[in-house]
Amino acid sequence: MSPRPSGAPRAGAPIAALRRARPVFAALGDETRLRLLALLCTGSALSITQLTAGTELTRQAVTKHLQVLADAGLVHDVRLGRERLWQFDPAQVEAARQSLAEIGRQWDHALLGLKAFVER
Prior knowledge:
This protein has helices at about 10-30, 30-40, 50, 60-70, 90-120; strands spanning about 45, 75-80, 85-90. By secondary structure, it is mostly helical. A three-stranded antiparallel beta sheet has the order 1-3-2. The longest helix has 29 residues, at about 90-120. The chain starts with 11 loop residues before the first helix and ends with a helix.
C-alpha cells in the first residue's frame, strides 16, 4: 500500500467523528424534534407547556422528544422553581458540522485525485 500523500486526510478520523455525532444525526432525523429544536434556537429557554402550545402534541410526547435531544447533547434543561425549562446547546451541532466538513474535504481530495488520473 502506498503512503498517504502529504495533505491527504486520514480515513479513520472522520469515521470516528461521525460515530460520535451519530446520536445528533439520529435525533435530527425526526421532524418533530427538528421543530422543537427550531423553537429552542430562538435563544430563550422554554417550558414544555410553551413547546406544546399551538400543536397537537401531548406533553408526554414532547418530553420524550426532548429526552432524545438531551441524550444527543442538543438541549439541556434548567430548573426554575418547580418549572423545567429547556435550552438549545449548540456544541454538538458544531461537532457534527465539523465531521461533515472533514468528509467534504476527503471528497474534494478524492475528486482531485480522480481528475488527475483522468487527465493523465
